[in-house]
Every structure is written in structure tokens, then in C-alpha cells.
Design a protein that fits this description.
This protein is an alpha+beta fold and 219 residues long. The chain has five helices and eight strands.
């Protein structure tokens, strides 16, 4: 009986396969692989270094920004002028002269670039008398003003003159705003004498270039 199929020889592989069943079986490995890949971040195996690097970089940028801001604040503080003076110099109009000596609180002796010896009366200010021929006109305030001027210019070898409209007064003294350099900054001696109360402002035409600024030192 060759054509008899024995019951114990049944095999599923002998059954016709449904197209849908075959496709499902082929998709199972792919789905398992995809789930495995998606599960990796959830296992804690992802390296956190890139995130830390970003945070560290942000911290460095923030720290550098703070340091720059602090440097700007320090620089601004360093830019404050001595004695609280405010007038800024125009280097192009300044004439460099050698300082010989201080006469009193508003007068000095200098030598200009041509070698001329000039008696310079500081424009726009007046200090009390201290070297007047009539001793009765000299005052203690004048002696203090003269002393301060000498101390201010004690280590100064070079001064810078700035002329206004009139260069000489009735006594043929040179009229000028006198500048000195302190820590790389030009400051006006005339204004320093006013700011420290060793002199008072005076307004004599036509030399009124800084009159509006000098008025703040009245009284």
C-alpha cells in the first residue's frame, strides 16, 4: 500500500504556507533588532561626556565674561583722574617745556623749545600771595599754596603749556594752562590748584576757554 500516508509522519513543513504567515516570520528578527537598539539608551550605557563638555564650555564662557566685566570695571576705576579733575588735554596743542622752578601757587619758570626762559602765570586762577615784595601782603594760605605747588611738581622735569587767546599779560608774563603727566594721563595744574582749594578761579577776557568748568570751584 504505497499510497497510504501514515498518521505519525505529519509535518507542518508539508502544509502550504500562507503569504501573511511567512511575512510575519521574516519581520520578527527585524523587530527584535529594532527594539534592542531602542533599549540601549534606557540601559544607562550612553556616554554623558558630550553633555558634560557643553556644560563645561558654558561655564568657561560665563567665567571669562565675568572676568572681562571685572577688568572693564577696574579699568574704569583706574581711569579716574588725580585730585578729581575732569578736563581732558588735546596733545596736539601742548608745547613741551623744561621746568626750572616753582615761584608760588600760580607762577612757574620754564624754558620753551627755543630755549627762552618764561615766567608763566597760570591762566584762570589766582592763589594767595606768598612772595610779594611787600611782606605784609603775604599770607599763610599763600605759603601753603606755594608749598603744595612745589610738592606737586617736585619730581616733574617737563611741563606742557596750552595757550588761550592772549599769550601775555600786562606784566609780559606768559599766560598758559599748565599740564603735567601723571601715570600716563595729562592733568591740568590750574584745575588741580582749584580742586584742592589752594586757588580760586578768575575770569579775565579773552582767556575764558575753561571758564565754565572753573566756575564749579567757586566758593
Amino acid at each position: 500500500m504505497k499510497n497510504v500516508i501514515k498518521p505519525d509522519n505529519h509535518n507542518d513543513s508539508m502544509l502550504p504556507k500562507s503569504p501573511k504567515t511567512g511575512l510575519f516570520r521574516r519581520l520578527i528578527p527585524t523587530a527584535i533588532l529594532g527594539l534592542t537598539i531602542l533599549a540601549v539608551p534606557l540601559t544607562g550605557c550612553v556616554i554623558d561626556e558630550p553633555v558634560q563638555t557643553v556644560n563645561q564650555t558654558t561655564a568657561v564662557i560665563t567665567e571669562n565674561t565675568v572676568q572681562i566685566e571685572e577688568q572693564i570695571e577696574v579699568s574704569s576705576g583706574d581711569a579716574e583722574r588725580p585730585y578729581g579733575v575732569t578736563i581732558e588735554a588735546d596733545p596736539e596743542v601742548l608745547i613741551e617745556c623744561d621746568l626750572e622752578r616753582v615761584v608760588d601757587g600760580d607762577t612757574i619758570i620754564v624754558h620753551d623749545p627755543d630755549g627762552n626762559r618764561l615766567r608763566v602765570r597760570l591762566t584762570g586762577i589766582n592763589a594767595p600771595e606768598s612772595v610779594h615784595e611787600d611782606e605784609s601782603k603775604n599770607t599763610e594760605e599763600g605759603r601753603q599754596a606755594s608749598k603744595f605747588m612745589k610738592e606737586l611738581l617736585d619730581d616733574v622735569d617737563v611741563v606742557y603749556l596750552e595757550y588761550d587767546e592772549a599769550q601775555f599779560d600786562q606784566y609780559e608774563r606768559t599766560l598758559a594752562y599748565v599740564w603735567i603727566e601723571i601715570d600716563g594721563t595729562y592733568v591740568m595744574v590750574n584745575e588741580i590748584m582749584l580742586a584742592t582749594d589752594y586757588a580760586e578761579p578768575v575770569y579775565i577776557k579773552p582767556n575764558l576757554r575753561y571758564a565754565d568748568i572753573f566756575r564749579q570751584y567757586e566758593g
